[in-house]
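Handout, section B. The chain below has 122 residues.
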Amino acid sequence: MKVLAALLILAVVAGCGSSAPAPPSTEPLSDIAVGLTEWSVATSTSTAKEGEVRMRVTNAGGTTHDLVVTGERGRWSTPKLAPGEQFELVVEAVAGEQLHLECTRRGHRGQGMWTTLDVAAS
C-alpha cells in the first residue's frame, strides 16, 4: 500500500495525466520530483546525476512536513511545508555517494518518511 501511495504522489507531483502512474525511473536525473505524504518520501527516480541536482519538493500530505537532504557536500533543507506547498532545493551530489532524504518533523522518520538516492557519474 505504501508503494501505491508513493506512485500516486509522483503522478500528482509530475502532473501526469495518465490513469496509471509510472514507476520511478532508474535513469540518473538532475531534476527530481519529491513527494511528501503520510508516511513516505517518494522520488521520481532512484538515481541522481552528479553535480547540481534540483529537487522539486511537494507536500502532498495532509499535515506539515519538511525535507532534509544530506550528502558529502552538505546538508540542505526546506522550510516547514503546509499541505499543498512546494519548495525547490538545489543540492550538490558526488558520484558514488548516496543522498539521504528525510522529514525531520517529530516522529515522521520513524513512520517511514525517509529514502535514499544513489548518485551516478554524468
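Note. The chain has one domain: 2-120. Compare this with the example in section A.
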